[in-house]
Amino acid sequence: MAAARGSASTNQPARKGASAPSDAVAKSAARLDTGHLDDVVTHLSAHSSIWAATSASARAVLLDRLIHDTMTAASGWLSDACKAKGLHPNSPEAGEELFAGIGTLVRIARLLRDSITDIEQFGRPRYPGPVLAHDDRLAVTVFPVSTYDRILFAKTTAEVWMQPGVTREEIDSRQAWAYRDPQRAKGVSLVLAAGNVASLGPRDVLHKLFVEGKVVVLKSNPVNAYLIPHWTRALRCLIDAGVLRIVDGGADVGEYLTRHPDVDEIHITGSDKTYDAIVFGAGADGVRRKAANDPIVTKPVTAELGNVSPVIVVPGNWSNSDLVYQAEHVATMLANNAGFNCLSARVIITMAGWRQRETFFSALAEALSRVPTRRAYYPGALQRRETFISEHPDPVEIGRASDDTAPWTLIRDVDAGNPDDICFNVEAFCGLFAETALAQDSIPSFIDAAVEFCNNTLWGTLSATVIVDPHTRQDPAVAAAVRRCVANLNYGGIGLNIWHGLVFALGTTTWGAYPGHPATDIQSGSGVVGNAYMFAQPQKSVVTAPFRSRPKPPWFATNQSQLAVMKRLLAFEAKPSLARLPGILRAALKQ
Questions:
Q1: What residues are paired with 263 via a beta bridge?
Q2: Is the distance from CB of 254 to CB of 17 less than 8 angstroms?
Q3: How far apart (Å, rounded) are the C-alpha atoms in residues 507 and 497?
Q4: 439 burial type by CB count under 10 A (0-12 exposed, 13-18 middle, 19+ buried)
Q5: What values do phi and psi take at 375, rounded to 5?
Q6: How far apart are CA 366 and CA 319, in angstroms?
């Protein structure tokens, strides 16, 4: 993979050393209320053994309480998030914020509760199965879980692929490892929260507590520290149990905590630059240490660090409605959260000879023209956009611009033969993406070339999407190429005919970089979150859906019923019932 990269999804770099603090840390500590921070860590450390001894049934009760409290906090939480991001709380776009920011937390809490209940009764979480063989790897079917899933996500499936060599017996025997020897798993985890999606920090907390068995200090990101009162209300049961503390502050707070001798491990959602500053240190000394693979950190660091996410568009003979649908699909991959996602679409890969290529991009521009431009709330976004435009001064710009709003921006025809292009090596982290075309003489050869391009040119290994219509897949050579594509893409999350963002949202899937990055080239990170079935050695997750879903998915940015559907879906996730389904379906049909 390409090594050069600059992401903007930073968590205000927080360096981390071993036991002896540097002069810089000592000076910083003099300005901090270090006594409070010490008390936080000491309190959690004292409760780590208590948490390890807490029964599975007691943990499940906490998750039930958390779901209730999150639902109680949801209204105020959504209101403040919309205000910070420039959204009207009754607009369709507020539905996106409601579910991504709150609904996915409720969903993962419910899934973990169900898994923990299984652990109490059966010794491990029960997954729906079956277990499938994909050449040298086994894959566990983890979705649909229920009849409800089959109704709400018709013909959609998800698999967690294991690393090569993992046997069928090992899949089960290594599940829920933290529950097999909880005293050994215990410890204090520092979670450095992301500043873009409201649910990320709390979701990471649940993973560390309920999957890995750690107690947690959650440090907010300054960008969304306004959420702390809502997080505190939603996670009150964990705070009252003594297993969670939430702190705010800037880089100096993060630096102090990462260096704290009683913090056993660190989890980051942010930038590779943040990771490098923590592991190797900042400035010239950090650069030297990284080059020499001489880290100053010894404790484990897991991380989810972003990606230049590709969308491979396999050419076909699409109808006008197909073109419109997939244009709205791809537009959503950029417009969601104003493009401030680690999983936003960044490079669309097409076949140069596809006769509908220009028609598709015209439809994409039309779809984006129907999506209101959004406040560039994340620091530095407008400057980052200008950096891309300085290298590609003739982009396609769509929508209104203002002092704090930029048009949706598409950079066309980026030269695939130039691996050093900024579009391939830098995560834009704003409402901008690019397109590149590969010159191949057949669809199977295009698919193979696209996989090679993704694996060897694009920066990062977090997530990717492949779009291919069913008629084209009827060709056995194309079908075989699609199977190779899914198997050979070195990404932790893959969507086949569905935005890879669903890999994050489902929760039964794993979310994180493709494994194997060394600390000196960390790219999209290490470790996974989500993982409600608590698998020990996952490699990647794959979600597969129909080429077109009916009705149009509520999360499409062009769906005017998004808020109404998401309100009903949130209530359903908190307490699934057959009685709630008709209301969701009726709302979804109102486009």
A1: none
A2: no
A3: 19
A4: exposed
A5: -60, 135
A6: 16
Backbone angles phi, psi at 526, to 5 degrees: -150, 150
Q: What is the pTM of this model?
A: 0.94
Q: How confident is the model at residue 7 (pLDDT cuts 50, 70, 90)?
A: very low
Cβ proximity of 400 and 357 under 8 Å: no
Does domain 309-497 fall under CATH 3.40.309.10? My reply is yes
Answer yes or no: is pLDDT of 9 > 50.
no
Domain ranges of the chain: 34-125+183-272, 309-497, 560-570+578-591
What contacts 291, CB < 8 A, 6 or more positions away?
520
CB-based contact 428:388 (threshold 8 Å)? yes
**CA 241 → CA 65, 200, 236, 263, distances in Å?**
12, 21, 8, 19
Instruction: For the chain, give percent helix, strand, coil, nearest 5.
Output: 45, 15, 40
Alpha-helical segments (H) within 438-544: 443-456, 470-473, 476-488, 501-506
- The confidence score (pLDDT) of residue 20 equals 36
User: How far apart are alpha carbons 525 and 394 in whole angstroms?
Assistant: 33
Identify the CA nearest to 244 among candidates 460, 531, 469, 51: 51
Return the sign of the alpha-carbon dihedral for residues 514, 203, 61, 574: negative
**8 Å CB contact between 473 and 463:** no
Smallest CA-to-CA distance from 417 within 388, 393, 438, 395 is with 438
Decide: 488 and 455 in contact? Cβ < 8 Å: yes
Amino acid at position 196, single letter: N
Mean per-residue pLDDT, 252-260: 93
At residue 468's C-alpha, the angle toward residues 341 and 134, to 5°, is 85
The DSSP element (H or E) to which 366 belongs, if any, is helix 357-369
pLDDT tens-digit readout, 322-364:
999 999 999 999 999 999 999 999 999 999 999 999 999 999 9
State the Cα–Cα distance between residues 247 and 242, nearest whole angstrom: 14
3-class SS letters over 89-122: CCCHHHHHHHHHHHHHHHHHHHHHHHHHHHHHHH
Distance CA 200, CA 193 (A): 7
| Alpha carbons 458 and 3: distance in angstroms, whole number | 9
Question: What is the CATH code of the structural domain delimited by 34-125+183-272?
Answer: 3.40.605.10
CA nearest neighbour of 360 among 399, 321, 334:
321
Element (H, E) at 433: strand 432-438
Contact 143, 542 (CB under 8 A): no
What's the CA gap between 331 and 559, in Å, rounded? 12
In this predicted model, what pLDDT tens digit does every residue of 477-529 receive, in sequence order? Answer: 999 999 999 999 999 999 999 999 999 999 999 999 999 999 999 999 999 99
Cis omega (within 30 of 0) on the bond before 144? yes
CB 457 within 8 A of CB 315: no
- Residues contacting 276, CB < 8 A, separation 6+: 286, 290, 522
Question: For residues 571 and 562, what is the distance between their CA atoms, to the nearest angstrom?
Answer: 14
